[in-house]
Specification:
The protein contains 9 helices and 15 strands. It is α+β, with helices and mostly antiparallel strands.
Length: 404
């Protein structure tokens, strides 16, 4: 049985649900298992491609499945030991709310983590900070036990570089980093180390490139399988997933995420022509005159118009109210204690073919077509002639990780 214990540092707040979704967060293994399963599926999709049965079988060999006839227990066990250094911090404290002005000193953080804010119906959420122990072991006598452990190791590498656990993980929350490893990991000596080695954005680009290539080699089964031009789900493949590191270091994680959040908010705020397109549809009840490009960052998208008597509207898909953002933002703690920002863009299918967007305002609804993804590309790599708030406009250069 393979068994290692990892000391994990919480880099950015973990917004995890407990007995009460808005109550005290609970650090539990199922949340981490779900996050690891997502990253394993994304990595497998980049090598297995459209072979859905092979993908499901490979995923189930590591984390199990719930099928009535083919289901099986997970071959990898995760156990969390909550350390004494764990503490909770409120959304208001994270975003540094000023009670007198009712504004946030860290407005970028407030924007990225807005779902954790207090509402009329719900109290604000708390996030966990600190460090804890995560034990990873394989089931005794599990088939190809070593292979299963190696896949779990590679998946944890992906999670600690690109992903997060819990709410707002695509917007920088829930990031963890490996501080120390206890056990004998000799079986993974040819895989990238779980601890961050880089001390600069440039070194991090090289480290991410080497790691992605190593994990793709690990997961390649009988050679690469064909990948459709636009995969149906998030897939780690050079043609379907682009990765960048922002060429700037920060003294703490708040500073980095707040600057990014300010850029992101300014880029999306009252964006033309989307703002007027939705306003005209709300006012007239007519279909959307053109695609709302801002929707490419995820659904739903809320709108509010004080000039229309405080009318509000929400844009979502016809058959589903949510579509997760294709862009992941992650703060990475470098080896020297400084911080860098990593961006990942999954160029997967936005919504099933034939789907239309639905704009709802009060008791009326109207429809519109899907956007393309040009606005995402403009925000990360281009210039913004509308709001002048792309990363480049704000003086932030991105270094692409080319891992083909």
């Amino acid at each position: 049985m393979y068994n290692v214990k990892l000391i994990l540092e919480i880099v950015t707040p973990l917004f995890l649900g407990g007995a009460e979704p808005r109550g005290m967060p609970e650090l539990r293994a199922p949340a981490f298992r779900g996050a690891l399963r997502y990253w394993l599926r994304a990595a497998l999709g980049g090598t297995i491609g459209t072979n859905i049965q092979a993908l499901q079988d490979s995923e189930a060999s590591v984390f199990g499945s719930a099928g009535e006839t083919t289901g099986g227990a997970s071959s990898v066990f995760l156990r969390i030991i909550r350390g004494g250094s764990i503490s909770s911090v409120s959304y208001s404290d994270i975003a540094e709310r000023d009670p007198s002005s009712r504004s946030y000193r860290k407005s970028g953080l407030a924007y990225l983590f807005f779902a954790a804010r207090e509402t009329r119906q719900e109290s604000e959420r708390k996030g966990l900070m600190g460090s804890f122990e995560l034990q990873i072991s394989t089931r005794p006598r599990a088939a190809v036990e070593g292979d299963v452990f190696r896949k779990a190791w590679g998946t944890l590498w992906l999670l600690t570089r690109f992903g997060g656990v819990g709410s707002r993980s695509r917007r920088g929350a829930g990031g963890v980093a490996v501080q120390r490893i206890e056990g004998d990991p000799r079986i993974v000596q040819d895989l990238p180390p779980l601890q961050i080695q880089a001390g600069s954005p440039q070194a991090l680009v090289a480290e991410l490139k080497e790691g992605l290539q190593a994990i793709r080699r690990l997961l390649t089964e009988q050679g690469d399988h064909p990948l459709p031009p636009v995969p149906a789900f998030d897939t780690i493949h050079p043609h379907a997933c682009r990765v960048w590191v922002v060429d700037k270091v920060y003294g703490d994680w708040k500073q980095g995420l707040d600057e990014f959040g300010r850029c992101y908010q300014a880029f999306r705020s009252r964006r033309a022509p989307d703002y007027q397109t939705v306003k005209d549809a709300v006012r007239t009840g007519e279909p959307l005159a053109q695609p709302v490009q801002r929707a490419a960052f995820g659904l739903p998208v809320p709108f509010f118009y004080r000039s229309l008597g405080n009318a509000s509207a929400i844009l979502q898909a016809e058959e589903q109210d949510r579509r997760a953002s294709p862009v992941w933002v992650r703060v990475v703690r470098l080896a020297n204690g400084r911080y860098a920002i990593v961006l990942l863009w999954f160029k997967s299918q936005f919504l099933p073919a034939g789907t239309r967007l639905q704009l709802r305002s009060g008791n009326q609804g109207t429809s519109g077509s899907l956007p393309d993804d040009s606005l995402v590309d403009r925000f990360i790599t281009g210039t913004d002639p509308v709001n002048h708030s792309s990363l480049k406009d704000k003086g932030l250069t991105v270094l692409e990780v080319r891992y083909a």
